Amino acid sequence: MPFVTSFVPEIRFGENLHETIGSAAASFDAKTAAIVIDSFLVRSGLADRVAAQLQAVGIRGRVFSDFAGEPTIAHVRHATEAVTGADVVIGVGGGSALDIAKIAACCAVSGEDAMYYALAANPLPKNPLKKIMVPTTAGTGSETSATNIFAGSEGRKLWVWGRETKADLVLLDPALTATLPADLTAWCGMDAFIHAFEAATNRNAHAGGKFYAHEALRLITGALEAAVKEPDNMEARGKVLLGSCYAGIAIDNCGTAIAHTISHALAGLAPVHHGLATALGFEATLAWLVEADTADLNAAAKACDLAKAADLPAFVSGLMDRCGIVRALPNVFAALDPGALAAEMKAPENLPMRRSTIREISDQDIARFAAAIMSLPKAA
């Protein structure tokens, strides 16, 4: 099968590598830099340390951290204003910070609103601002992906896609993930695992993507439990972080499938952590999925050190158990019914993930999956 492997940014990996952000920005001949960073990282002092690095190499830095939770169009618009006029954008944080930074780096040079590019309605500018991405969670793989998610004014998940949004440089530093709480480590790690699995097994899977996806599955399978239970275990955290990065490359090439149809639909209804939502959707559909028993499903199982695809549902549920993942939705979902989730799963923006799933998904399947998800307990 012919395939094209998309551009992979320069990736640097190492403990305390974040201490080189200033010199990395200087390598782009930057005079001014905009730091898009999660607000809690500002409170931790990381933003000040990055700004000090920039100042030490003669770069004027400014900080934008006025966002929380999943990215929204308002966040992206404010970030675009903040980064306009900079030479380089430095994204530091989880997937939200990185996605916001990458979209803003494009909109800042074109003057167009992010909605102009939503769902690939128009081509992105060919000369975006230079971008350095520094993930502090190991889940989204946004640092290497050309897909960037945000919620539109009506709350629906939208995406901006294109090579122009990709990072020019990725800095992977496991030390930056050490303070991530156990539940977030688990949720993000499962998101990365599912990225790799879906990229390796859907209709768009090809050898170029599976190369990264299978290595991501090996890394995450062998290290996620330790990363959750031993927060200072830099070897485990490094493996999960690298696995997340490789999984991001995999979905950049091959996309996702049914679990992400569900998680994006859930987010379209109410606030929920993407990693948790994806894990719940994955567990609810995996037994149905592996009935396809394809060569790709079996190869993914082998990458997880399992004998066959049929072993995957029990393995995944066990991994979620060992990582302490509670199968529950936020309380806000108590007011919603399965029909609302089914409708969101059928929305146009979620259709590509439905179509890419290796099994045909009927409306009856969607109704059944939605009922299973919405029957989960609701937690405070």
Describe the 3D structure.
- The protein is 49% helix and 12% strand.
- The chain is an alpha/beta fold.
- The protein has 2 domains: 167 residues, Rossmann fold (3-Layer(aba) Sandwich); 199 residues, Up-down Bundle (Dehydroquinate synthase-like, alpha domain).
- The strands form 3 sheets. The chain has a 6-stranded parallel sheet, with helices on both faces. A two-stranded antiparallel ribbon has the order 6-7. A two-stranded parallel ribbon has the order 9-10.
- Strand 6 and strand 7 form a beta hairpin.
- Helix 9 runs antiparallel to helix 10 and helix 9 packs across helix 13.
- The longest helix is centred in the middle third of the chain and has 23 residues.
Descriptive keywords:
single chain, 380 residues, Rossmann fold, Dehydroquinate synthase-like, alpha domain, two-stranded antiparallel sheet, 15 helices, 12% strand
Secondary-structure arrangement, i.e. CATH architecture of the largest domain: Up-down Bundle
| First and last CA, distance | 48 Å
Note the run of SSEs as H and E: EHEHHEHEHEEEEHHHHHHHEHHHE
The CATH superfamily of the largest domain bears the name: Dehydroquinate synthase-like - alpha domain
Poorly predicted regions are none
User: How would a textbook summarize the main sheet?
Assistant: 6 strands, parallel
**How many domains?**
2
CATH topology of the largest domain: Dehydroquinate synthase-like, alpha domain
Helix-residue proportion: 40-55%
